[in-house]
Amino acid sequence: MTTSDRIERVLAWVAGLLWIAPLAYVFVRSVIVESPAGSRFGFDNLVNAWGAAPFGQYYLNTTLLVVGITLAQLVFGALAAYAFARFTFPFKNALFAFVLIQLMIFPEVFMSENYRTVAGFGLLDTITGIGLPYVASAFCIFFLRQAFMTVPNELVEAAQVEGSSRLGILWKVFLPAAKPSLIAYALVSVSTQWNNFLWPMIVATSDETRPITVGLVRFLAPETGMDFPKMAAGTVIVIGPLLAAFLIGQRGFINSFLRSGIK
Description:
It contains 13 helices and 2 strands, in the order H-E-E-H-H-H-H-H-H-H-H-H-H-H-H. It is globular. It is mainly alpha-helical. A hairpin with a 2-residue loop joins strand 1 and strand 2. Belongs to the binding-protein-dependent transport system permease family.
């Protein structure tokens, strides 16, 4: 092992420790129960935090929201990417340029207009209203288009010879070939939407529609008192499912990213 390799390994370990230290502290703090008799390990903080807010409802809202948005993005993104990758139509390049421009604009820029649109449809304080601005993703279109462009023409011609329609070719040829990219994007979308906060906070005003990130902020509101062990327990409740999913399927997740080309 060369000196540069040793330095890279040391730097990687330092970066890893710096990344995991706050997370480890939150997990440890959440299971330390303080009492007049002293401190001990237990799950009392997690139980108390779970009972202090309707986290079950928040989990349900978040699951519906994340699954719905991710599926919608994949459907619309695949159809749009298929068109941009394989068909010729007027203003194709100009329209794709608009897609790329959207990647350079922060979503917060459209927040006021999105709010007026959602309010006009009467969808304020609904799961549909929270997810509506995210059903189409410029990054998804761009990402899947790049994956579809790598599909060999021979596979498309073979499907045409078999009599497949255009949608049939998409289903039988392009989607299977782009499976790693689909999985990789789905993981990015799930993580992004699970942690989304600002827009849901504006639209959701009741516990029946609040996702878990907004519910956590309500749980940690100043009027409830600043109980740090309970705050740590609430944070663990929020990040626990994603972290557990990653730890269980980390090999498959990493392989999907490597095969899709995401660094």
